[in-house]
Amino acid sequence: MSDQHPEHVFDAIVVGSGISGGWAAKELCDKGLKTLVLDRGKEVKHIKDYPTAMKAPWEFPHRGRLPLKVLEENPIAAKCYAYDETAAHFFLKDKDQPYIQEKPFDWIRPDQVGGKSLMWGRQTQRWSRYDFEGPARDGFAVEWPFTYEELAPWYSYVELFAGISGNRDGLDTLPDGEFLPPWEMNRAEQAMRVKIEARHRDRNVIIGRCAHLTEIRQVHRDQGRMLCQARHLCQRGCPFGGYFSSNASTLPWAAKTGNLTLRPDSIVHSVIYDDVKGKATGVNVIDAHTKKMTAYYAKIIFINASTLSTNQVLLNSVSRRFPNGLGNDNGLLGKYIAFQNYRGRLSASLEGMEDRYYSGKRPCAVMMPNFRNVHRQEKDFQRGYMVFFSTGRAGWGHAVPGEQAGPQFKTAIADPGDWGVYMMMQGETIPREANHVRLSKDHTDPWGIPQLITSVDYDENDERLLKDFLDTGAEMLETCGAKNIAVTDTKQAPGLDIHEVGGVRMGKDPATSLLNKWNQLHHCPNVLVTDGSCMVSTSTQNPSLTFMAITARAANHVIEELKKGNL
Amino acid sequence: MHRRRAISLLGLLAGGTALEFSGVLAGCNEPERATGILTKEDIQLLDQVGEALLPATPGVPGAAAARVGDYIQAIVTDCFHKQDQVFFLKGMTQLREAILQKTGGTFDKLQNDERKAVVLFLDEQAGTYKPAKPGDAPQHYYAVMKGLIITGYFTSEAGTTKALRYEAVPGKFRGDIPFKPGDKAFA
C-alpha cells in the first residue's frame, strides 16, 4: 500500500450512513478502528441541519403541500407519504437517481448523511422464530444461516442503545425486547382489542413497538438525547433526539471516539479488488460535485448503501477474479429481491365514545402480529401479514349538519368529529429469482455509474394474501361494530413500502448465497454487507431493528477476526 | 415586511411633506397581498366570502384576519394544475356574477347577514351541482373555494391557535382523556 496517500488509508470503510451503516460505524469506532464513513448525500448534523423541525403549520407557504413544479419534477419521491413541504429536502431528487423500471418499482431514496434513518417509520419489532424458520419450513429462498436465539442477544444490545418502546406482551409470534415504557391505546383501540381478542383466540392486539424514547436512561443521556415529545413531526428530524436516527445517535457517538472520518457527498463507484492479494483493498469514490474519483483503502469494508444501492455497487465492482460483480461466482447477485405487500387498506367509522378523546401525537399504531400460517400451512397462500390499525376522531373540516356558514358552523367543524379507524397490512412476499436488479449496459447516471434496472413484481401469492387481508380486515371491523367499511387495493408498485430487501443474501452454502452467516462475502471475506440486501426473506415485521442487530453482530465478529489475523 | 419598511421610512421622512406621509401610511394600512394568478381584488373577495363562512367570534378571529385569500393565492398559483387554475379563475368570475344576480351589487357593499345569505345560497347550489355534460367541471366552483377557505383557516396561525388547541410540544401522549362539549379539538 506504499503508493497510497496516508490520509486515504483507514482500518475500516463503511459505505452508507443510514440505519445499518451508522451502527457499523459506531461498533468499529468503539473498538478502536479508524473508520471512514462515506455517504452520497449532503451533510446533515443533528439539530443544526433540521431547518423545518420547529416550524409551526402556518410558517410553511403552502402549509405542508408541495408546489406542483416540485411534484412534477419528482414523480417517484412524490409517492412517498413523508415527501411534503416539511421534509422534501431530505429526499433524493428524481433527476439525481435515474434508474430503469423494467417493471414498476418506486425507489424512495434519501439525500443526506443518516440516510433514511432520518425520516423512517420507526417501528421496531423483533422477528420471531417463525419468521426466521419460514424459508426452511415452507421451502422457499434458502435457510437462514442463524436462528432467532443466536440473534436475540444482539437485539437486546441494539435495543438498549437505540431505545425501543413497547409492552411486554409475552407472544412467541412477536418476542419481547428490552423495552422502554409502551405508548397507550386510545379508548376506541382498547374497545377494538377486547372485541377482536374475544372473537379470535389466536389473534393479539398490542400497542406498536417503536424507536422512541419514552424514558431516558443513562445511555440516552450520553447520546445527548431527550424524551420523545409526542409531536410526530419526525420526518423533519427531531431536535430532541426523541427517536433513533444515525444523526442523533450512532454517528455522533462514533465521532466522539475520535476514530470517525465522515465524508458526505461521496458516491461509491465500486469496491477495489486486488487480484494478487486476493482481497478487497478499498473503494473508488466519486465526489458528488466535482465528479473527481478518489480511492480510499482499508482492511475491512462494510457496504451499507441501502438494499438496491448495495446491489448496484457490488455489481459494478468487477475485476479479473470477479467479472460479474464482487463475490458473484454463483450468478445470484441482484436476485431474490423481496419487499412487503402494503396494498391493502381499510377504513371505517365507529359509533359512540363522543365523551372520550386523547392528546399529543403518538408515533406508532396498534399492531396485530401475523396470525396466518403461523404453526402450519393452512391457507391458500404462503406466509402471512402484520395488521396495523389506529383510531382517531375526525379533525377540523369534517362534514356537519345544519347551516353551512356562520359562527355555529365554524365551531362545529372545528370540534372533534366521529371516531374512525384506519387499517393496513404488511405482508411477507416470497423472494423469487425472477425478482431481480441488474446493471444497464447502455445507460449511466450523472456520475457515470451504470444505471440499475429494476425487475420486481407481485405474484399470485401476493394477490391471495392481499385478498385474505381485505376479507379478514373487513370481518374484524364488523366484529368491532364499525360502519361504512371501505376496502382499498392501492395497487401500489413494489418499493413504495420502502422495505425492499435481498439481492446479496446470506446463507450457509456459497453455491446458493452471497454472504456467510457473519455477513462476509463467501468469496471476499473482508467485505461485509449488513443492510437490507443481506436478507434471506422479509418476514411480516418492519426490517430496521433486525438490520441493526445483524450489523452489530457482524461488526463485532469481524473485529475479532481482524484481531486474530484472519483477514 | 411592508409594515417594518414603512416604519423605518417614517423615521427618514420626519421632515417630509404631508403628502409623502399620507402615501407611506396608506401603504402601512394596506396589508401586502401574496402575488400570483389572482388579483388583489380576488384575494379581498375570498377573504370576505371566507369571513361570511367562518366569521370572527369572541376571542376567535375569522377567515379574513387569518388571511385565507393569501393562502388560496399560494395554493392556486403554485399547487394547481393549469386546467384547475383556469377552472378557479372562471369560478371567480362566476362568483361575482352570482353575487350580482342575487343582490344586484358587489359583495363588499353587503351587510353581514346578506353576505351569509349569499354564501348559503352558493353552498346549496354546490350541494346539488351535477356535471350536465361531458367536459363539465366535476365540482361546483364554490365547493373548491369552501374547501380552500376551511383549510386555509385551520392551518393559519389564528385558526390553529385560537379556533383549535395548538400544542407545539405536547410532551406526552395521553391515550384516553375525557371530552366535554365546548372543549376545542387539538390542532
TrEMBL record, chain A:
Which residue intervals define the domain Glucose-methanol-choline oxidoreductase C-terminal in the entry?
431-550
SUPFAM superfamilies for this protein: FAD-linked reductases, C-terminal domain (SSF54373), FAD/NAD(P)-binding domain (SSF51905)
Q: Does the keyword Ligase apply?
A: no
Q: Where is the Glucose-methanol-choline oxidoreductase N-terminal domain?
A: 146-317
Q: Which organism is it from?
A: Niabella drilacis (strain DSM 25811 / CCM 8410 / CCUG 62505 / LMG 26954 / E90)
Alphabetically sorted, this entry's keywords are:
FAD, Flavoprotein, Oxidoreductase
| Family stated for the protein in its record | Belongs to the GMC oxidoreductase family.
Necessary cofactors: FAD
What is an example of a GO molecular function annotated in this UniProt entry?
oxidoreductase activity, acting on CH-OH group of donors
Classification via InterPro entries: FAD/NAD-bd_sf (IPR036188), GMC_OxRdtase_N (IPR000172), GMC_OxRtase_C (IPR007867), P2Ox-like (IPR051473)
UniProt entry tagged with the keyword Ion transport: no
Q: What is this protein called?
A: Choline dehydrogenase
> What is the top-level taxon of the source organism?
Bacteria
One Pfam match: GMC_oxred_N
Automatic annotation (TrEMBL), chain B:
InterPro entries attached to this UniProt entry:
Gluconate_2DH_su3
Top-rank taxon: Bacteria
Q: Pfam families per the record? A: Gluconate_2-dh3
Name the UniProt record assigns to this protein: Gluconate 2-dehydrogenase subunit 3
Lineage in the entry? Bacteria, Pseudomonadati, Bacteroidota, Chitinophagia, Chitinophagales
